[in-house]
Amino acid sequence: MAIKFTNEPPQGIRASLKRTYQSITQDFLDYSSQPQWPPLLYAVAFLHTVVQERRKFGPLGWNIPYEFNQADFAASVQFIQNHLDEMDPKKGVSWPTICYMLGEVMYGGRVTDDFDKRLLITFTQVWFCDVLLRPGFEFYKNYKVPQTRNLSGYIDYINGLQAADNPEVFGLHANADITYQINSAKAILDTILNVQPKEGGGGGGETRESVVHCLAEDMLEKLPEPYNNFEVREALQRMGPLQPMNIFLRQEIDRIQKVIKEVKSTLSDLKLAIDGTIVMSQNLRTSLDAMYDARIPERWLKISWESATLGFWYTELLERDVQFRTWIQTGRPNAFWMTGFFNPQGFLTAMRQEVTRAHKGWALDSVVLQNLITRYNKEDMKEPPAEGVYVHGLFLEGAGLDRRSGKLIESKPKVLYEQMPVIYIYAINTTAGKDPKLYECPIYRKPQRTDLKYVGSIDFETDHNPRHWTLRGVALLCDIK
């Protein structure tokens, strides 16, 4: 017989701070006579709580859900103690040192994603500075640093905090709570779906097999024909086979050709297996179960893209096919649907190569992407730009957009994603760094913001400090499904 124990961090700022301060003694609070010690200890505890609580908001909180734990807090507090012991009272606290150690070493040592690292460093820079030691400082409205050196005073203050926290305490917009509720509900529904029986129906209704048979027939009817290799070669020859953009197009067509053939093969075999003409293999049975549950069969997923349901996935297949066939038949589109590419990073790289070749003396290493947020929709673009590309179909998460100025603004209540107008992306030859007044916004292929789904970055103008949008978790998504 065995008994299992789990030790999970408490939920909410009040519960987390309470747990932290219940493990602290009055002697520990009296460790240093320096006036900076109690507020610095509380600030580290607050940071520890916030970095843990942001995980529940999914990619809006952290691109990767890191397992920050008590060891990180203990190491950070030990560093603060050492720093205060060695501090020159005339010079005071070295804030850059504290920010570096917390953001790059103690907590930052766990962080592997560049944009997560930027977020963590932003937290340290916003909170660990001279204003922390001023009376009346607030991390957020009604979240102050208690002005006391007594442990009981801290416990009483913490007990008076709200039980439920506004997402803005963590730097996020209030809409983030909707995202959290959706993610929680989806996790429960996925669990329920996974425990459903997989046998065929027996209550007089349609069986799983008959439902999937009808679905397969319908999908086969709409499935595009495979590409004719001779016609593709002729079209590319006409457009210039060695142009970077056309090489990219060839690679994309090769990949969608593979998907179309696999889908056709699976659907045809499923129909035959359901009719009893061939044996229902384990692979076909797995595909049948997935299609019945409106999920994408694993064999298709391996060679294609992720999506919320089979219906969304199949619609995207048809839309991708339309973009590629139109490009081959009528030439380069005026505006590109970037979501419809297998390799959107390759698309932007091909554009950079094309611009570099057009300018004598330019080196690819020093050519960087620039962008302009337009006011137009894709239907308004009557011709392609002389240089660079117009892209459409991106969604903004974590912020809203002022269409007139192209600047970031706060999200509208209950609006999680905002569709972007056409964005003009071009390239220039420069070795200058980024403008610190602009917010560098990452682009991801899907809502799951991992390195594998990272496409690139574009810059937004903003009336706020760019740090504000870093804390908001603002990003562009090619697809929200």
TrEMBL record:
GO terms for biological process: microtubule-based movement. Residues 37-176 form the Dynein heavy chain AAA lid domain. One of its GO terms (cellular component) is dynein complex. Residues 183-478 form the Dynein heavy chain C-terminal domain. InterPro entries: AAA_lid_11, AAA_lid_11_sf, DHC, Dynein_C, Dynein_C_barrel. GO terms for molecular function: dynein intermediate chain binding; dynein light intermediate chain binding. Gene3D superfamilies: 1.20.1270.280, 3.10.490.20, Region D6 of dynein motor (1.10.8.720). Transmembrane segments: none annotated. This is Uncharacterized protein. The lineage of its organism: Eukaryota, Metazoa, Ecdysozoa, Arthropoda, Hexapoda.
